[in-house]
Design goal:
Helices cover 39% and strands 23% of the residues. Strands 3-4-2-1-7-9-10-8 form an 8-stranded mixed β-sheet, with helices on both faces. A 6-stranded antiparallel β-sheet has the order 12-13-11-14-16-15. It is α/β, with parallel strands linked by helices. The N and C termini lie far apart (47 Å). The protein binds aspartic acid (ASP) and magnesium ion.
Length: 449
């Protein structure tokens, strides 16, 4: 096997029978596609998270379970000879009901086992659909290959073990059949189910592509590739044909929702080219992400990420002026607070908190961390802010770039500007209400002239 493509299809791509059939055509259209990674059917993970959080009324719980049943059985209804898959999906739904009934005091471990059921069901159905459509497909339980630590809700992969299992179990299977497996989930060394965090299927696909030494990774979603910004915000946004790994990872990190931020890390390690396209309209083409792009424009794209938490720490005592930052970061590290952006002045430092965990929403500064920090400095926490990131090339070395950017934004209140640490991005915070206008204004100035 020379060429081996790993193709990942997201929730909307496998939302229903029609969507799944489009994915089947994409797979059939490329002989080298031997490993297929899929998400749960659209909306399913949200329903499962709701159940895992423990719904108080039995009625509500029943309604959620019924909805799950409807989503899956409406697809199965279109598939002949579905008895075995019906049984498999019913068994998983029983497991969901049992877990949901027990989820009074939700733990991350129970949540993982519960939310994993989405991918476990979608892969049963999709494998059957591929077989019905004439492909020789087999379902593989990814928990046998994608090994992780035991941090439930946001597990990290064990790369060595994953590579070993993928080479031993998965790659030989890919030589024989089209293998369908789950995104998002894995298992720890005791066999407990873990998840990589919301939206983690892209990351799963990239990890598996790395582990089986694939030659291409395709991420199929509901938009035809990466755009200069979200077209729902700025309708003039233009598609990007080719982009470098570094630009694309800045975009993913800064909230372009098209790729999970960690996705490109394994692809970059192995230099696996990544294609992003729409399974609903594959003829529209998409974006290739490669180590080097032929064209490196000064301004490439704009990303917006909301739900930001900004923490400002002001030293109480000038005596702390040296060693202050070290102490601050010691405390943050001790409480496992992951920092995203940072700006500093002589006596204060502002930072934003990294988005972690499956539940979403604005990240919180843990109380214990705040308490400890308060002994050292004044702590102010602000929310309701969005981060705007401008991605490009050599921005720090280009005369006039900053004037053009900030000149366009004279009307707006910008907070916490980060510029210069990376040649590929400039970012700042705005308040949520203005954030889309800021993106539109900047897009117009930098991309539509
Ligand atoms: N199904 C999971 C989620 O909705 C993972 C994914 O779709 O990437 O978060
Ligand atoms: Mg998804």
């Amino acid at each position: 096997m020379n060429a081996l493509t790993v193709a990942k299809f997201g929730g909307t791509s496998v939302a229903d029978y029609a969507a799944m059939s489009k994915c089947a055509s994409v797979i059939k259209g490329n002989e080298s596609t031997r490993l297929v990674v899929i998400s749960a059917c659209s909306g399913v993970t949200n329903l499962l998270v709701e159940l895992a959080n423990g719904v108080s009324s039995l009625e509500k719980q029943k309604a959620l379970l019924t909805r799950l049943q409807e989503i899956h059985f409406s697809i199965l209804a279109s598939l002949p000879e579905n008895e075995a898959v019906n049984t498999a999906v019913n068994d998983i739904l029983d497991t969901v009901a049992t877990f949901a009934a027990a989820a009074k005091a939700p733990s991350d471990k129970i949540t993982d086992s519960l939310v994993a059921c989405g991918e476990l069901m979608s892969t049963h159905i999709f494998t059957h659909l591929l077989n019905q459509q004439g492909l020789d497909a087999v379902r593989f339980d990814v928990r046998d290959a994608l090994k992780t630590d035991d941090v439930h809700g946001k597990a990290s992969p064990d790369l060595i073990e994953t590579a070993y299992q993928a080479q031993t179990l998965l790659r030989p299977l890919c030589e024989e059949k089209v293998v369908v497996t789950q995104g998002f989930i894995g298992s720890d060394n005791r066999g407990n189910t873990t998840t990589l965090g919301r939206g983690g299927s892209d990351y799963s696909a990239a990890l598996l592509a790395e582990a089986v030494q694939a030659t291409t990774l395709e991420i199929w979603t509901d938009v035809p590739g990466i755009y200069s910004t979200d077209p729902r915000i700025a309708p003039a946004a233009a598609p990007i044909d080719e982009i470098s790994f570094s630009e694309a990872s800045e975009m993913a990190n800064f909230g372009a929702k098209i790729l999970h931020p960690s996705t490109l890390v394994p692809a970059m390690r192995q230099e696996i080219p990544v294609f992003v396209g729409s399974s609903k309209a594959p003829e529209k083409g998409g974006t290739w992400i490669r180590r080097d792009a032929e064209h490196s424009p000064l301004f490439r794209a704009l990303a917006l990420r909301c739900n930001q938490t900004m923490v400002t720490l002001t030293s109480l005592n000038m005596f702390h002026a040296y060693g202050f930052l070290a102490e601050v970061f010691n405390i943050l590290a001790k409480h496992k607070v992951s920092v995203d952006l940072i700006t500093t002045s002589e006596v204060s430092v502002s930072l934003t908190l990294d988005q972690t965990n499956t539940s979403g929403g604005a990240p919180k500064l843990p109380e214990a961390a705040e308490l400890e920090l308060s002994k050292l400095c004044k702590v102010t926490v602000e929310q309701d802010m969005c981060l705007v990131a401008l991605i490009g090339n050599e921005m720090g070395e280009s005369r006039g770039a900053a004037a053009q950017i900030f000149g366009a934004l004279g009307e707006y209140n910008l907070r916490m500007i980060c510029y210069g640490a990376s040649n590929h991005n400039l970012c700042f915070l705005t308040n949520t209400a203005e954030s889309k206008d800021v993106v539109r204004t900047l897009h117009k100035e930098l991309f539509e002239k």
